[in-house]
Amino acid sequence: MSEQRKVYLDHAASTALDPEVLQKMLPYFSVVSGNASSQHAWGREAMAAVDEARERVAKGLNASPNEIYFTSGGTESDNWAIRGIAEAHAEKGKHIITSAVEHHAVLHTLKALEQNGFEVTYLPVDRLGRVSVDDVVSAIRKDTTLITVMLANNEVGTIQPIREIAREAKKRGVFVHTDAVQAVGAIPVDVKELGVDALSLSAHKFYGPKGIGALFVRNGLKIGRFLNGGGQERTMRGGTYNTPAIVGLGYAIEKAVRDLQKNAEYVSALRDEFVKRVLSEIEYVDLNGDVGEGRLPSNANIGFRYLEGESILFTLDLNGIAVSSGSACSSGSLDPSHVLLAMGVPAERAHGTIRFSFGKENTFEDVDYVVETLKQTVKKLRAFSPLFSARGGSNV
Ligand SMILES: *Cc1c(COP(=O)(O)O)cnc(C)c1O
Question: Do residues 219 and 66 lie in contact, with contact meaning Cβ atoms separated by under 8 Å?
Fold first, then answer.
């Protein structure tokens, strides 16, 4: 019996650590053991690695090293940026603007701020998941201090018009934070060109280690301290440096940015072939989100009518294929995705949706295997689906 094929199509949830990046990290788990804040040779060696990594991250974003703060990942960066900016500017006003399709790291941080007297406007999105710049402008008030809109969506891959939003915000003296966790390494991300004041990223979304990320904070922007402690990160975020992870982040972003064009072309070719085949070979399917330039190269979000996403996910899992239904972060709850609902996808169709996110190690043979498995899976599940037999019309 041949071994079962394994195909990982959940890169939007996390990616495997790049072996070259792992090699760069290894000495910092053992040989280079000092605390980067210590004043002896051991400490200096660790701090030199932290400084180098900071330069790599800054270069990857076209920022300055002193605009980069290391964090434990995307969630922390989002929490810090939003709370830190909103609270530091609360004397001007307590109004924040966001979109209905943000990651829960953003939405739940805003919910917590609402408990503390802040007011939040949640902007709608269009059918493709895009925020309108005009809507952002109309929502700005005298007491608005912050706009937080993601650069690219984690469920449907839609890319938001952040540059245009930041341009309008700047004219009106409002700060802009963007959650770029899905964007870094997937599309060009240049903080100067985008014109944003703060930006979140996370290493494990671009083949770096888990549990490490960064927050870009534009020089001169007032932001509150995130962790009280030993004065690390220019006193803004205390805690002993996670040297191996920081080193990994630096090399991962350097490689992701260097290989961006090549990887984006390859991954989008896989994704396009997959989408083309699914749409033509399986009936009653809907592609959610934008096509072409307005979407991340890796993302395909497809609704399978008359089916539950979870049953598709479990059957694919039994066949060695990893995907996500709705948002991985909310799995465990069977609520339909807030992103799809905001895009106007009916709840029953949102329930039957699967996110396929491709990565650089996938192949065209993977695409073929997944399409064939998906065809059988959908056929089998629909044969048992009361929704499908009740849909009216003939059976196929
Ligand atoms: C993964 C993700 C996060 C959370 O990042 P972690 O490093 O896992 O905490 C935040 N925002 C978006 C858009 C994401 O995709």
Answer: yes
